[in-house]
TrEMBL record:
It holds the Pfam family YceG. It comes from Psychrobacillus insolitus. This is Endolytic murein transglycosylase. The keyword Chloroplast does not apply. Its main location: membrane. The chain crosses the membrane at residues 27-47. PANTHER family: ENDOLYTIC MUREIN TRANSGLYCOSYLASE (PTHR30518). It is found in: Cell membrane. Belongs to the transglycosylase MltG family. It is a single-pass membrane protein.
């Protein structure tokens, strides 16, 4: 009797376990079906959304929409402008579509677009640079210029003098006004104690079209600042993640702009500067000495290297307090994507070609080889 009751108990338990297993299986099956159903619905809606974003927003629309693409705008800025102005449905999808099709070389300018245009039509319009109004004149600001040199460019292209330009860009009230207008670009660092000129390096090098005969100096400067923000805004998130500031980027890039003669040189010179900073060595870059002296020289003398100035990177470690010139896109890219090297030294020969060395002895040999002949 005892054996029988034990068997009955065991049999009962087995039946209960089987029942539990069946229940668990049913629950798991239901959960899997629900997950698959949700995933299927989400995929369908995602597909439908992307499909609609790749099509004209309103094929029947004849409304003209004016869209401005500032000088120096990247694909992120352009995509956002198109969405904000109601020309496309989604900026990210437009950006990925353009990237997937290897579309680039978009032209700055003022465009007239419609919601009836396809993405391909919008892209081709932005690439051709067809404006709905022609500029009265254009002004080209090359890379590697200081504020004073940009003032000379402004004087040649407009009715304004270089002195008036320099007065405006160094006036505290105007700088403060620009800091309010461009808070992410112009931070408190530009007014640090040892910074020579707050806006040095922040006027982007480009060719600027103007649509009136005599634009004010404020309009001219704001146009260049807008181009600068458009050009570096895509780096804001990356800089924040790395604990770096825009001022750090603009300052570092200005050194590369003054030292380099080719895009590849910029990336390798950037690696030299990174290596030196990491080892606690001064950067020892001649353009900072010239900036400290406030004059241009074909040759920097040994006595010049002794100048007592915060910008002199022979006497002070790390980057100078601020930029020493305006930098172009390739210099910004070089700062953020330097060559991986073990170089600590470089020199430019008489033809302007840079030669890199890992040791000081190797550097001295190259001085003898390339500069003393």
């Amino acid at each position: 009797m005892e054996n029988e009751s034990k068997k009955e108990i065991m049999f009962k338990r087995m039946k209960e376990k089987k029942k539990e297993v069946k229940t668990v299986r049913k629950i798991v099956s239901i959960i899997v079906l629900v997950v698959l159903l949700i995933a299927g619905i989400a995929s369908y809606f995602a597909y439908s959304y992307v499909k609609s974003a790749l099509e004209p927003l309103n094929p029947e629309s004849e409304e003209i929409i004016a869209v401005q693409v500032p000088i120096g705008s990247g694909l992120d800025t352009i995509s956002t402008a198109l969405e904000q102005n109601g020309v496309i449905k989604n900026a990210k999808i437009f950006k990925y579509y353009a990237k997937f099709n290897n579309e680039s070389n978009f032209q700055a300018g003022d465009y007239t677009l419609t919601q009836a245009m396809t993405l391909d039509e919008i892209i081709q319009t932005l690439k051709t640079g067809k404006l709905y109004r022609e500029p009265v004149f254009s002004m080209t600001v090359p890379e590697g210029l200081t504020l004073g040199e940009i003032g000379n460019v402004v004087e040649k292209a407009t009715v304004h003098t270089s002195e008036d330009f320099l007065t405006l860009v160094t006036t505290d009230a105007f700088v403060d006004k620009m800091m309010v207008k461009y808070p992410k670009l112009l931070t408190a660092e530009i007014k640090a104690e040892n910074v020579k000129y707050a806006l040095e390096g922040y006027l982007y090098p480009a060719t600027y079209p103007f649509y009136e005969d005599n634009p004010s100096l404020e309009v001219i400067v704001e146009t260049m600042l807008t181009a600068m923000e458009s050009n570096v805004s895509s780096y804001y998130e990356l800089l924040a993640e790395d604990g770096k500031s825009v001022h750090w980027l603009v300052t570092f890039a200005s050194l590369l702009e003054e030292e380099a003669t080719a895009t590849t040189d910029r990336k390798t010179i950037a690696s030299v500067f990174y290596n030196r900073i990491e080892e606690g060595m001064p950067l020892q870059t001649d353009p900072t000495v010239l900036y400290a002296l406030g004059s241009h020289k074909d040759r920097v003398l040994f006595e010049d290297l002794e100048v007592d100035n915060p910008y002199n990177t022979y006497q002070n470690k790390g980057l100078p307090p601020g930029p020493i010139a305006n930098a172009g896109q390739s210099s910004f890219e070089a700062v953020l994507n330097p060559t991986d090297s073990k170089y600590f030294y470089f020199l430019a020969d008489k033809k302007g070609t840079n030669h890199f060395s890992k040791t000081y002895d190797e550097h001295l040999q190259k001085i003898d080889e390339f500069l003393k002949k």
